[in-house]
Amino acid sequence: QPTAEAAIGCANMSYKKGDYEAAAKFFDEAITLESTPALKADYAYKAAASSYAIKQYIKAKQYLTEALKNNPNHGDAYILLAHCYGASPRWTDEAALNACTYFVVLDKLARAKQVDPSVAEKANEEIARYSAYLPKTSDLFMIGYKNGDTINIGGWIGETTRIRF
């Protein structure tokens, strides 16, 4: 009879060996077998970290959505979601619009601090790092956007944010 604990044991072993694909599968099994929301959230976060490690950002986002459904105050999940978005910001041919993805990255990092003060220092470091990638005001102006405008980030990200400088 499979248990969440057994699946976690296999997942952790796979992760330590660098077999992130297998780790994600075992974490996924643990999520299915677990009934406690906090543990489901932690397992989903770990599955997302495994997927992120092999650049499967869409899959990582799915796991992070599951983690946040089970624990809306999981600050590290918001930080990892920001990393996923930051690692793959391209959703259009317009460079300035792609750079707007970093507004969503900053939104997720701010949310991490808001829901989980224990991650505030880490989130602040990431905010400082990702702020360097924001689009220039002049570049956005040239394509018809200004401070305060709402923008829909397309592609697999599918988030709405506000332009701010």
- Succession of helices and strands: HHHHHHHHHEE
Shape: elongated
Helix content: 55-70%
User: Number of helical runs?
Assistant: 9
Number of strands: 2
User: What's the overall average pLDDT, rounded?
Assistant: 96
Please compute the radius of gyration using only Cα atoms: 17 Å
End-to-end distance: 55 Å
Tell me the strand order in the biggest sheet.
1-2
How many strands, what sense, and barrel or not for the largest sheet? 2 strands, antiparallel
Strand content is: under 5%
Structural classification: mainly alpha
Which regions have little confidence, pLDDT < 50, spanning 5+ residues? none
Molecular structure report:
The protein has 165 residues and is mainly alpha-helical. The protein has helices at residues 4-16, 20-33, 37-53, 57-70, 75-87, 95-99, 101-115, 120-131, 137-142, and strands spanning 150-153, 159-162. A two-stranded antiparallel sheet has the order 1-2.
Question: What attributes characterize this protein structure?
Answer:
165 residues, mainly alpha, 9 helices, 2 strands
In short:
The protein is mostly helical and 165 residues long. It has nine helices and two strands, in the order αααααααααββ. The N and C termini lie far apart (55 Å).
List the helices and strands and how they pair.
Elements: H1 4-16, H2 20-33, H3 37-53, H4 57-70, H5 75-87, H6 95-99, H7 101-115, H8 120-131, H9 137-142, E1 150-153, E2 159-162
Antiparallel strand pairs: 1-2
